[in-house]
Amino acid sequence: MSGELWGLTIHEAHARLTTREIGARELLESVEARIAAVEGEVHAYLTLCRETARAQADEADRRFRSGEGITPLTGVPIALKDNLCTNGVKTTCASKILEHFVPPYDATVVARLRSAGAVFVGKANMDEFAMGSSTENSAFGGTSNPWDRARIPGGSSGGSAAAVAADECLAALGSDTGGSIRQPAACCGVVGLKPTYGRVSRYGLIAFASSLDQIGPLTKDVTDSALMLNAIAGHDPNDSTSADVPRPDFTADGADVRGLRVGVPKEYFIPGMDRSVEAAVKAAIAALEREGAIPVEVSLPHTEYAVAVYYLLATAEASSNLARYDGVRYGHRAKAPRDLFDLYARSRAEGFGPEVKRRIMLGTYALSSGYYDAYYAKAQRVRTLIKQDFDRAFERVDVIATPTAPTPAFRAGEKTQDPLQMYLSDIFTISVNLAGVPALSLPCGFSPEGLPIGLQVIGKPFDEATVLRAGLAYERVTAWTATKPHIG
Ligand code: GLN
Description:
The chain is of the alpha/beta class. The protein is built from 15 helices and 11 strands. The protein has helices spanning 10-18, 24-42, 50-66, 108-116, 158-165, 182-188, 222-232, 275-290, 306-321, 340-351, 354-367, 373-396, 419-423, 430-435, 464-476; strands at residues 45-48, 77-81, 119-124, 171-176, 191-194, 214-219, 261-265, 294-298, 399-403, 439-446, 452-459.
């Protein structure tokens, strides 16, 4: 580590803030200096919240002086994906249609971090409406991978992942509908957690596909992931799909994996897969075995249908969710419309980018009468089969280990002309959203070109604690999480 404050994890910073060896303002200024040094190359942020961040840091310092209201996140500089509503701060979803949208309220996760005393550094870049795997669908320009600036950071939470990897914040929030936290975490060599569907409130998360979307943390290590989840998890009366279940202390489970049964699904290790990914993930499973875990071969037989099912259901839900952008209530409005229909049509034509339009058309088609049963209803039934695959596997194992993504980060531009190739980036992450279960991605090695590779650890519903325990056990016996990109 560099020895600079921007290089700290949340728990390291907290230890030094509580003893008042460092101040929250000093920590923020270090992160600001880091942003000044590297943001020109990375472009992780769409908006920087300079003034409000300083006010939050000063407030955190007051808390440390008085000894009151201190939480593990007090004074910690955090980036927020730009689909999370922030009261008084522009929230664009990386779309022209919301380019000037300033929400009058905070998302529940934002409110929770705010009251915990966190400092919001800025709003992170993303694929427009979280649709994509490379952040190249942002209407405001892409983000570079801090490990290799010619490559994509993954997506859709690419700005959040790159900001963490480049030390432009201590941690970030992202959202994950089909892999958008885990795949960028893998591409950028950071830790990403998609919680169980319902674990974290989606209130104030701009909806993409409501039955799949979950908010989760991107962090520098597994302990920080648990700290972030502690702060954002829990029932919220404003989100009827948030689960009213007890929230354990996710830092309390330790790293003992003796006797832990680790399922290894044969469908996720296929001939022709990227050699370096296969080798790194198998080595990670072997490392867990040396710590006392027991690998067990399992089968998730409906895996091959996951991408098709996802692109029917996610587009169907998106076409309905995005109907609200009509140029009337908020967002972009076309100039001098001839009539109401022209207002709707042109506002949407001007405001949405090509991938969003493609999804709206696919989803509208899948939901149209005459095709509904053949596509949408059928996909819902296959979704149930995919979920049952996991139920069955989890009768025999405690967690499931797989690669997070089929390849390390690809080059910018490599897949932009071929949406189907792009969609396959999430082949290992999408089933997890369809089943609603939690999954963690953590660094498990590097490709020959020096690009990070991600290990995915999938858990039973609401059993993030075991997933984090396995992650922590692995992290402790490797050096991958601590390896940093050369930038700045
Ligand atoms: N890459 C997938 C998609 O484009 C997943 C995106 C996400 O998880 N938000 O839909």
